[in-house]
Write a structure and sequence with these properties.
The protein is mainly α. The chain is built from 29 helices and nine strands. 56% of the residues lie in helices and 6% in strands. Strands 3-4-5-9-6 form a five-stranded mixed β-sheet, with helices on both faces. Strands 1-2 form a two-stranded antiparallel ribbon. The longest helix is centred in the middle third of the chain and has 34 residues, at 334-367. The protein is globular and about 85 Å long.
Length: 721
């Protein structure tokens, strides 16, 4: 198909001049237009998005896609979906599920593909050129989404079906799709009229641009910071592995000595082991003042995002953004969220205060002098106290967690529970040489999914860990389109002398993201928008968090935790010590998570525009969860990507909400034995495979037989016996 936009551009740059002989002139014009048409076809042929993917399982040809391919592909994708939506909206036939809801569900396939690849790269392979394009694309996508959600004729058809949904012969998933489509349009301003409609359009475009700028500023500010140290005496206490990695990083940057940055494999071990308190403070302040001043300042952007969200909620008739956003969450309203946060804070705070007092006392005894515990001291002294109390630390465990072995163990856990297997396929294109692609097969040998694994930090890759539904599962014309899933982490890279060795926390991170991937891999639904992790935000963390529990089980660790040098299986006493230390300072960790939940809710329960001091606002928002006060010049909000650019606005509480679910679910899954295939099959059938086809509590109760309570979590954490 010829790209019309390419044609128009070509004609503009090469105007036709009239010739003296009419026949010659017409012949020239014919040849010229043929050249332009062929040029357009050639440009499309060169763009991988405009042809079928000749790759295993029709995976995206990441190796052939270049930055210059995106804008033409986005432009064509927007135009194609516009035409599809207009055809649905202008249909003269009475609205039905098939000619409206289903037709919408299957529209925009090119836009889905282009967006999936684009956002995979912007998260893992970002650069200045891609960032500049991201800003343009964010605005274009918001305007495109508004054009659909504010299409009155289209919404009239959707509302007609929604209002009469009980009279149609709809299956459960179809009814849910109708309801979700209607609610999505309502949340996108479809019911607004006149000036309010135009105001929503203006605010949503501005909000999208601000969220993208927030993300880019956070990434740039993080990448900008590097601490170079040439005096090794300043690095006492740091493990040799960390020093080796820091030395290689400095060498890569053409510097002498050692380089430390704010990526997880560098920052967290530094705070945990560095004896030099001044350097710990320097890195802590660097991390916790990111994007709060200077070139990449997010302070005003935070205010604007929070205010625009409140204004949008007001347009929708809600007093706060949280009231607006929680409409499609299990919690349903701010009162339920605060109820959970307060209940957990009341249960954990007394224990957390005891934990802090113990670490404070230990610090004074360890140093032999008066010392006031500061946030940059917490990891250092608590790790030393843990090592003394339980005779265990990360460096004792790390040699048993070679990345390749951990991967086999995690994959093997899925084999034990669900019977699925994994086979690496180097013919599947990936977005970086470090990324591997795996074919996943079900217990009967049938093909199930593609899983991409991206383990190590690099320039342009955002911090943290995440799972991506790169291509969700769905059915169309009798064919089951199986999913392509990505899991991305930032583990320490191998050095010249050692393989990549994970900390225990990194092992649980792997399990967490792998749990998300199973949610996508096992998807067995009809409609893409209901597949895998397309569920309520406060339900999506259940499959991920429940997987972390196996990390403490000897039967699981015995299968892969082998010393990388001696091949010795991890000693039983180490497993016991690690299990005993599981709840060390657990209440402090819980209060830290609650503080983020309170801060999130603080920003999203504003009833008036906020123009005050961000530092003071943070302190007031999380007062109830404060155990160890944050320094007055530190600020979390300016890099709190989860809520300001990552989809967790008024939803950060969901980690604790899901923790209640996962503790309850794990107790049930392992009530008979650690690898209970029958219980796992029920979890797969009733939770993992069903995606968003039913309300999540219905799915959970079908698996569990009852609603969860917080007792399982309190018992697991040792808060109650």
């Amino acid at each position: 198909m010829t790209n019309i936009k390419t044609l128009k551009k070509g004609c503009m740059h090469h105007p036709i001049r009239p010739l003296t002989k009419n026949d010659y002139r017409m012949k020239f014009i014919g040849l010229y237009m043929m050249t332009i048409l062929m040029s357009g076809m050639s440009m499309e042929a060169a763009n991988p998005f405009f042809s079928s993917y000749k790759t295993p399982h029709q995976t995206f040809p990441f190796d052939k896609i270049k930055i210059e391919h995106f804008m033409p592909a986005f432009e064509k994708a927007f135009a194609l979906e516009d035409a599809e939506i207009n055809k649905i909206a202008e249909n003269k036939e009475a609205p039905t599920f098939e000619n409206t809801i289903l037709a919408m569900e299957h529209s925009g396939s090119l836009l889905h593909d282009v967006s999936a690849v684009f956002y995979t790269l912007s998260g893992s392979e970002n650069n200045d050129e891609l960032m500049a394009l991201s800003s343009k694309v964010a605005t274009m996508q918001t305007e495109h989404a508004n054009k659909i959600s504010l299409n009155e004729a289209l919404f009239t058809r959707i509302k007609t079906i929604y209002d009469n949904r009980e009279t149609y012969s709809l299956a459960q998933d179809q009814k849910k799709l109708v309801e979700d489509t209607y609610e999505s349009f309502m949340l996108s301003g479809a019911a607004l009229q006149g000036a309010a409609r135009e105001k929503y359009r203006e605010l949503s475009v501005k909000l999208s641009s601000l969220e993208e700028t927030f993300f880019q500023n956070s990434l740039k500010a993080t990448d900008q910071y590097v601490k170079y140290i040439t005096d090794k005496s300043l690095l006492k206490g740091l493990p040799e592995d960390l020093l080796t990695a820091a030395g290689e990083k400095a060498k890569e940057k053409g510097k002498e000595g050692w380089a430390f940055d704010l990526s997880a494999p560098s920052y967290f071990p530094f705070l945990k082991y560095a004896e030099n308190r001044a350097l710990r403070e320097e890195l802590y302040r660097a991390k916790n003042t990111l994007a709060s001043s200077g070139e990449f300042n997010n302070c005003e952007i935070v205010r604007d995002i929070a205010n625009i969200r409140r204004q949008i909620a007001s347009l929708m008739g809600k007093s706060t953004y949280a009231d607006f956003a929680l409409r499609l969450r299990m919690a349903e309203n701010p009162e339920a969220v605060y109820g959970l946060l307060d209940k957990l804070a009341d249960a954990y705070m007394p224990v957390a205060k005891t934990e802090v007092a113990a670490v404070q006392g230990f610090a004074i005894g360890f140093e032999g002098k008066k010392i006031t515990l500061e946030p940059w001291d917490w990891s250092y002294y608590s790790e030393k106290l843990k090592s003394i109390q339980f005779d265990i630390n990360d460096e004792m465990l790390r040699p048993y967690f070679k990345l390749e072995n951990v991967q086999k163990g995690v994959f093997g856990l899925a084999t034990k529970l669900y019977g699925i297997t994994f086979k690496k396929n180097p013919k599947i294109p990936t977005w970086n040489k470090d990324v591997e692609a795996w074919e996943v097969f079900d217990k009967d040998g049938s093909y199930l999914a593609v899983l991409y694994t991206d383990f190590h930090p690099r320039q342009g890759k955002r911090a943290g860990a995440w799972m991506s539904d790169i291509n969700e599962q769905y059915r169309l014309n009798g064919k089951d389109h199986r999913p392509h899933i990505g899991i991305t982490m930032n583990f320490t890279k191998a050095t010249e002398s050692k393989p990549s060795l994970l900390t225990f926390d990194e092992v649980t991170t792997f399990l967490h993201e792998f749990g998300h991937s199973l949610h996508g891999i096992f998807s067995d639904v009809n409609y893409r928008s209901q597949a895998g992790t397309n569920v309520y935000r406060d339900f999506v963390e259940l499959p991920s968090q429940v997987m972390e529990n196996w990390a403490y089980e000897k039967e699981f660790l015995d299968g892969f935790a082998i010393h990388y040098q001696t091949s010795e299986k991890i000693p039983y006493e180490l497993v016991q010590k690690n299990k005993a230390a599981e709840n060390f300072n657990i209440a402090y960790a819980c209060m830290r998570q609650l503080s983020f939940g309170y801060l999130d809710m603080g920003w999203h329960t504003l009833t008036m525009d906020f123009n005050g001091d961000l530092f003071e606002f943070e302190r007031k928002s999380w007062t109830k969860s404060t155990v160890l006060p944050q320094p007055k010049d530190c600020l979390v909000s300016t890099t709190f990507s989860h809520i300001f650019s990552g989809g967790y606005a008024a939803g950060y509480y969901s980690y604790k909400w899901a923790e209640v679910l996962d503790a309850d679910a794990y107790a049930y899954l392992t009530r008979n034995k650690i690898f209970d295939t029958e219980a796992a099959a029920s979890f797969r059938e009733n939770v993992l495979s069903r995606g968003g086809t039913e309300p999540p509590m219905q799915l959970y109760k079908r698996f569990r037989g009852q609603e969860p309570g917080i007792d399982a979590l309190l018992k697991r954490n040792g808060i109650i016996k």
